[in-house]
């Protein structure tokens, strides 16, 4: 089942509200990294006047551009596309960081934020056994129950598996690259990082 009651659901979409709640008041420009077919970018556009969706998968960008919205969709790579530093009030990303070197990706997102801007991302990392066994069992059980109720929408974007970085490594990397960031592990086998870039003194 792809859509139930007219609404898409999957493990990534489940955490879109967490991303949207982190958008700072008055944000004028947002960048959604790994936008896929644009679902989160379109949601951002409801409150942010200028939204850019970036993805390096051409079919996904083609699908995104088929929607009637005024999001600027770019076919490109976060690490090489010539965005100006400090040019976005909010940078978002869902299930994208594991498609690239995580440290380099976080540093690039940090660079693109204006002082006072917010980075909000949800990611996938690799579980470590046996330490994470109970977390995995709980996540699989909850995910199965939610799919039964909500259905499951399979996104069209490429999949990378297994994730190269563990949850523990990701937590350490976030603390090192984004001092003061809030890292949290979630039930549905995802983590989130919320970070506000310090204002220049």
UniProtKB/TrEMBL annotation:
One of its GO terms (molecular function) is methyltransferase activity. CDD domains: AdoMet_MTases. GO terms for biological process: methylation. InterPro entries: Methyltransf_11 (IPR013216), SAM-dependent_MTases_sf (IPR029063). Residues 31-120 form the Methyltransferase type domain. The keyword Transferase applies. SUPFAM superfamilies: S-adenosyl-L-methionine-dependent methyltransferases (SSF53335). This is Class I SAM-dependent methyltransferase. Keywords: Methyltransferase, S-adenosyl-L-methionine, Transferase.
């Amino acid at each position: 089942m792809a859509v139930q009651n007219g609404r898409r659901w999957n493990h990534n979409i489940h955490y879109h509200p967490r991303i949207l709640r982190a958008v700072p008041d008055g944000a004028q420009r947002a960048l959604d990294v790994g936008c896929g077919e644009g679902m989160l970018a379109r949601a951002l556009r409801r409150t942010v006047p200028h939204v850019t969706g970036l993805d390096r998968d051409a079919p996904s960008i083609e699908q995104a551009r088929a929607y009637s919205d005024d999001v600027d969709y770019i076919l490109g790579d976060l690490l090489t596309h010539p965005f100006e530093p400090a040019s976005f009030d909010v940078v978002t990303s869902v299930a994208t960081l594991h498609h690239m070197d995580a440290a380099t990706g976080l540093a690039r997102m940090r660079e693109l934020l204006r002082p006072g801007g917010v980075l909000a991302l949800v990611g996938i990392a690799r579980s470590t056994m046996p330490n994470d066994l109970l977390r995995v069992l709980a996540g699989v059980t909850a995910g199965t129950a939610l799919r039964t109720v909500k259905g499951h929408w399979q996104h069209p974007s490429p999949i990378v598996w297994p994730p190269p970085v563990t949850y523990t490594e990701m937590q350490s990397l976030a603390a090192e690259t984004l001092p003061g960031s809030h890292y949290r592990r979630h039930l549905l086998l995802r983590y989130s990082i919320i970070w506000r870039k310090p204002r220049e003194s």
